[in-house]
Amino acid sequence: MDSKLNSPFALEQQQMSEQIYAGNDSDQLDSWRCSDRIPKEVALNIYQNNLHGGVAQHLQTQFPIAHAYVGAQGYQFICAKYLKTSPPEQPIFTLYAAHFPGFLLEYGEQHPQQAIWPVAARLAQIDFFHQNTFCEDQLIEVEDIYYQLWIQISSMMKSEIPAQSNGLYQQLDLHPERYQERVSKDITLITFWDNDDLFFRVG
Amino acid sequence: MSDLLPAGIGLGFRFQHAPIILRDKPNTPWFELIADDLLLSSGRQRVIEKIREHYPIALHAIGLNIAGPDPLDTDYLQALATVYQQTEAAWLSDHLCWSAAAKRQHFDLLPFAFTKGMLDYLSPRIDQVQESIKRPLVLENISYYQRFQQDEMGEWDFTAQLMKRTDCKMLLDLNNLWTNATNFDIDPAAELTALTTAINASDIVQIHVAGSKFHPSDDGAGKGYWVDTHGEQVPAEVCELLKATYAAYGDIPTIIERDNNLPSFDELESERQHLVKTIYG
Description:
The complex is a heterodimer.
Chain A: H1 10-22, E1 32-33, H2 40-62, H3 64-70, H4 72-85, H5 93-98, H6 100-110, H7 116-132, E2 139-143, H8 144-158, E3 186-194, E4 197-202
Antiparallel strand pairs in A: 2-3, 3-4
Chain B: E1 9-12, H1 18-24, E2 31-34, H2 44-52, E3 57-60, H3 74-87, E4 92-95, E5 98-101, E6 104-110, H4 116-133, E7 138-140, E8 147-148, H5 155-166, E9 169-173, H6 174-183, H7 188-198, E10 204-209, E11 213-215, E12 225-227, H8 236-249, E13 254-256, H9 265-280
Parallel strand pairs in B: 1-2, 1-13, 2-3, 3-4, 4-7, 7-9, 9-10, 10-13
Antiparallel strand pairs in B: 5-6, 11-12
Helix pairs in contact in B: 4-5, 6-7, 7-8
């Protein structure tokens, strides 16, 4: 049989996809048959939460230091912007996450009065390398001041300082304005194996 | 086909746990790996080679979009086939669902109507995948929060017909069965009986168990509903379904699947050992 057939359900799928993405109400979903426990609007809300909340949660997992710096509220905001501006086109989430630091940088350039985003972008770049590199001798070039900030936040998180929903950037010594127009040397981080675990050192 | 893996209860492998697993070599009989995690050339392959030295594995994918309206992503399919061949996994599974439309990904498992038209649509797509991976594809039942007016048959009749047409196999997620039945006020045990009546033992190669999260109704007057988070411990009700499934079909390779609220490996392994005691005494 022909695998190029059109889905007999394509119209409903397209409509459902649009409703989930747009966060609209459930008026148009006439083909849905719901249960007493889950009315139509609740069912749609679950799918919307799975998309929007799921993307934010996965982006938090991929970028834990950037998330701690920006804080839960700001992170939720920027994840929603990312999903709206650049909907994912490929099925592998890691590929979608790979473009997130670039998006933060671009968003920062478009909103120069918000100094937090360029800093978050640099932290996210290190986060991604840290989360997604599994073999030795992998290299990344980063600016030393952002690596030092990443190490500082990482150590704060390990010491279990209570999470701040408004973000660590509010602390005076971590404030993004301290990083504006500062010149820093580039350094190279290199991965290495030790006792079946992967670390990185400054080259 | 299910004899390609030990019949015991294993775990879903997560890369966060890799250092502990490689250091301690726990007595977990086998692991299921997320295939999508291995499709990028990031060095994960070396970790997997080490895991494979000690454990049998199965692969579980999430991005095939087998019931989606778009053509199958041949790059993704080719990458899956390569990883499947390289890892020598017992089988490759994905979900009987769609996850993208007009190239827009949902990173979610979405339902479709169980119709003859969808059987006709799905069969050549499954054939295409099986030609690529050169083995039967294994498809998992999903959780859903609504059905469709267009449904022409039940889920298990649909799945049985699909397997008959294509020789694909089934991964039975008992938490999804329990969640769907409970949300639609159907007795989960009766739903399992309907499944075992429709589907042969040889067609089910793997089982998932997991937990869902309860949400009270907004006004407090309703009965509330369950959302499939795969982020909770396996509840007693799902353990009972597992016992009943083994009684009906015999032992089938099973894993605890935890996607969210991931605990430490030691906690997850303790939960697995507790489940083994609950099931086998």
